[in-house]
Design a protein that fits this description.
This protein is of the alpha/beta class and about 700 residues long. The chain has 25 helices and 27 strands. The relative contact order is 0.17. The structure holds ligand MGD (2 copies) and molybdenum atom (MO). The site of one ligand MGD has 32 residues, from helix 5. Keywords: Iron, Iron-sulfur, Metal-binding, Molybdenum, Oxidoreductase.
Amino acid sequence: MPDSSNAVSAQDTLVRAACPHDCPDTCALLVTVRDGVAISVRGDPDHPTTHGALCAKVSRYTERTYHPDRLLQPMKRVGPKGSGQFAPVSWNEALDDIAERLKEIAARDPQAILPYSYGGTLGFVQSESMAARFFHKLGASLLDRTICSTAGEAGLKAVIGGKMGLDVEQFEHSKLILIWGSNSITSNLHFWTYAQRAKRNGAKLVCIDPWRNDTAEKCHDHVQLRPGTDAALAYALMHELIAHDWLDHDYISQHTVGFAALRERALEWPPERAAEVCGVPAEQIRQLARDYGTLTPAAIRMNYGLQRVRGGANAVRTIACLPALVGAWRHDAGGLLMSSSNHFAANGAALERPDLLAGRAPRTLNMVTIGDDLLRPGSAEFGPKVEAVIVYNSNPLAVAPEGNKVRAGFARDDLFTVVLEHFQTDTADYADYLLPATTQLEHLDVHKAYGHRYWMANNPAIAPLGQAKPNTEIFRLLAARMGYTEPCFAESDEQIAAQAIAPDPRNGGITWEQLRASGWAKLPGAAAPFAHGGFPTPSGKCEFWSQREADAGRDPLPEVLLPYESVASAPELATRYPLAMISPPARNFLNSSFVNVDSLRNLEGEPLLLLHPDDAVARGIADGQMVRTFNDRGATLTRARLSSRTRPGQIVALGIWWRKLSADGNNVNALTHQRLTDLGNGPCFYDCLVEVAAA
Ligand SMILES: Nc1nc2c(c(=O)[nH]1)N[C@H]1C(S)=C(S)[C@@H](COP(=O)(O)OP(=O)(O)OC[C@H]3O[C@@H](n4cnc5c(=O)[nH]c(N)nc54)[C@H](O)[C@@H]3O)O[C@H]1N2
Ligand SMILES: Nc1nc2c(c(=O)[nH]1)N[C@H]1C(S)=C(S)[C@@H](COP(=O)(O)OP(=O)(O)OC[C@H]3O[C@@H](n4cnc5c(=O)[nH]c(N)nc54)[C@H](O)[C@@H]3O)O[C@H]1N2
Ligand SMILES: [Mo]
């Protein structure tokens, strides 16, 4: 850890970089380097959405990079799986052995090999470029990367055609902002800056969230609904918009499909009915509808928190109908933003080279069900038993649902596991080979964003530490050992980065060469993407009623689907496990990343369970006491915090702690299940019943 003063001096160099983390903000970074050491990471003051400010986590990025526990050499397992006992080996020995093992398995059936990766870095180069080429050429099982956002994506796609929305920079001009299923101060801090400006300009801010999170504390109103009931709330809002004729009839007739059918469905949802389902006062729903129908421009910042339940996609679908009804899309500062991903045109085919499959169609496994899938025997239906897993950019032992099954799967002695990592995570403890990967300061990358509209460049600031290598280089070396000779396996990171930005009008004329120098470049395109319609749906309109959904045998209108596990929808289960648990992110962690950075872990303290005082009293639990949270799938041991910031009947367990840094070697995912969302095959982390008892 560099301890020199981090005041910039004349001999320092300043490197333009980008935050790699799975967060909507994708900040522009300025890294100060002195004598080959990165001494500070700051937010670029000139980048509009970063505006010189970083979150607590990434402002400590040097602490993470130079952490004494960084993996700096390849390691081979010497103890039992899970024991975390390793001995150093050379790169040659590790790569030769891994290639031999993969060849041997592939000779039987390459689908027995599974890549497992997600959001450790969102860079195009270090995520699915060389890695995807490698697994495509191998013919390995494909991975459906569903663990975060695919339900919401499916919901948005059905109604507005894709992950597009209003420009985050416009929110300061909104007069009403609904922060729906998002704890902005924790997970979308730079949006919050715009929301605060709007507030100072007289806008009303409303947070729609089951618990009074830090963001709700600072909004004018908080609609504290039960998890998984958002579609009912949205339909009641429509009911009121229709009943009071707060509608933009001109926008509806020109740019939407299916209003008559939607109207009929919405009229089944008077506020009293939704109030019953959502557990909020009918009067509050009426007021929210009045605000939404009369304050212009009205903007919705919807985020992924509301789609981690059975009806997640349909909840997003229902909410996505609202802006068209009131014509909010006409305004630069109106409409909705969930993700800006599809404003960008990335050249996925060039990066990932699916053509290397050469006509083969390997099975696809869903990353949410890794627990079950690792424990499944081979069968005609499933295909071969999984014999090898290569994990990179992910920590499934901590983040995947039904963690006890995930652990049992990775503990299989007949499973060959390779983990590419910065640290010895919970997953790394189960590796046969643990390979040291570079961090964002040590490698090159190019990023799009899902919360703003800038392409971002990441220039390497320092040389790789120890023997660490970029993911790309590790897969390049493995490809060579497998005998893959296609020229794409010899491409440098620089050559890969240059292909990421597709030559597409959506990207304007942005090129990699320019981007590297400038650090960031904004997409062209109007602030209000749908002011004149032009939705990327089959009809070109906002589809309240979806022919595509009808053709797939599903409800052509958005549906209200209650959770798999809730008192109302699973009364039998609720007699044993009456408390609904949600587990959104802790502010100072990024999923399971940063949990091992001491200064940040100290800010979070220890794994906590927020419990309403009524529920605590009923169970004889005092504030600060250790409690056991349990259901049929598992149990955790955490400290209880009595708080009226949650509802009676609902607990909040902020995540995602490393198991091995928790009191009992378990984390919140010991309790979650592997069932999937209505559309998009996503996880249902916030659709989970439990019971709590004093430990
Ligand atoms: N500090 C920090 N920032 C992060 C992350 C992190 O771990 N830490 N993670 C990053 C990642 S990968 C993602 S996907 C995003 C996640 O950030 P968001 O997309 O904002 O999603 P969550 O944080 O999961 O949940 C946001 C809020 O939704 C609420 N919520 C839960 N269930 C429901 C529901 O049924 N209805 C409604 N209306 N609200 C509900 C939760 O209580 C929470 O306050 O943030 C990114 N940013
Ligand atoms: N209960 C519960 N579970 C959840 C969630 C929740 O809200 N509640 N949130 C879910 C969500 S939204 C998400 S997105 C997932 C996130 O799940 P993951 O994508 O697995 O995210 P992380 O836990 O941050 O783990 C990423 C790992 O990648 C490593 N890494 C980072 N950069 C690199 C690199 O360049 N190379 C290599 N080889 N490794 C690297 C990091 O060290 C880290 O250990 O978790 C999900 N799980
Ligand atoms: Mo996520």
